[in-house]
Amino acid sequence: MDWKPEKPPTAKEIAARFRDDLAAERYSPGARLPGAKGMAKELGVSLMTVQSAYKQLAEDGLVEGRAGSGTYVIDPKKGNQTAGQTARGLRELQDHLAHVTSQLSELRVRVEQLEATRSGVVDENQ
């Protein structure tokens, strides 16, 4: 991973970076991710932070940890999505969720404005 963040990243940020790398197919199925100890040193974070990031990727079904060996990109069975395809799907889902959240926020503001307007009309009629 060629990444030099300005400040030590969180586990969530590290996992997001790996998801992006997987989506861009920088790691092929079966490839080993960088060792957690080396990655922690490189990024200036604790070993636990990198392990947490790898755990998030495993929970997403993108990688698997092998005791004493490392963390590997899942090599899908025939007919299943690759880690890159899954990562791209997750990224698209995140983008879609952000868009929907933005729309809901706009609707909330509009409803509040309508309720305020309606409340003013009711007050004037009384």
Unreliable residue stretches: none
Strand order of the largest sheet: 1-2
Characterize the largest beta sheet: strand count, sense, and whether it forms a barrel.
2 strands, antiparallel
Shape annotation: elongated
Which range best describes the helical content: under 10%, 10-25%, 25-40%, 40-55%, 55-70% or over 70%? 55-70%
The average pLDDT value, as a whole number, equals: 86
Q: Please tell me how large the radius of gyration is.
A: 22 Å
Beta-strand content: 5-15%
C-alpha end-to-end distance: 68 Å
How many helices? The count is 4
Q: Structural class of the helices, strands and pairings?
A: mainly alpha
Question: Mind explaining what this structure looks like?
Answer:
By secondary structure, the protein is mostly helical. The protein has four helices and two strands; from the N terminus they run αααββα. The chain has helices at residues 11-23, 36-43, 47-59, 83-125, and strands at residues 63-66, 70-73. It has a two-stranded antiparallel sheet with strand order 1-2. α1 (11-23) packs across α3, α1 (11-23) packs across α4 (83-125) and α2 (36-43) crosses α3. The longest helix is centred in the last third of the chain and has 43 residues, at 83-125. The protein starts with 10 loop residues before the first helix and ends with a helix. 19% of the residues are buried. The model has no long low-confidence stretch (mean pLDDT 86).
